[in-house]
Give the backbone structure.
Amino acid sequence: MEIEQVDTLIVRCQNNDKEAQAALYQKYSGILFSICLRYSNSYEDAQDVFQEGFLHAFAKIKQYQFKGSFEGWLKRLMVNFCLDKYRKESKYRIEPLDDISSLSEIEEEEVPLSSHQNLDYNTLLRAVQNLPPRYRQVFNLYIFEEFSHQEIAESLNISIGTSKSNLSRARDFLKNYLLHLNPNSDE
C-alpha cells in the first residue's frame, strides 16, 4: 500500500469511515499485535490489550498530523497504551530498586544472549513473556522500541540506573531461561 493510499485512509478514519478503519486494521494489526504480545503475560491478555489499544488508536487518530511515519506514530501509541494498561494493574507495577547507587555505572553491553543458539520467534516470545514485568517492560522498550535509558526512565517513572539494572537483569534472566531450554549449547 502506497503512502498516499495510507494518508487517504487516515483522513477517512479521521472522519469515522468504518471501511477505512477496517483497511488500516488489516494493514497494521500484525505489527501492533506483536507489540501487545511482547508486553503481555499471555496470548489472551495480548488479544484484550490489542483490541482496546486499536480502539484507542482510532479515538486518537485525529491527533495525527501527517508529520513523520504513521506506522511509527501508531506503534508508539500502542506501546504507550500497553504501558499505561499494565501500569494500572498492581501485578505489573514497576518497583524501583532500593539500592541503585552502584547501578548507575552499569555499562550497556551489546552482547547477544547466546551466539550459538538458533531461536525461533515463539521460543523468544515465550522467554520474553516469562520475564518479570518490570524487566520485560524495560527490555521491550530498549530492545524493540529503541528507547534510550533516559526515555525509559521518563516513561516508567524510574531512574536511569534502575532502567539499566532492569535491562541487565532481563538479559541475565533470558540467557538463563534459554540455557535451561537447551543446556547442551556452548557459551
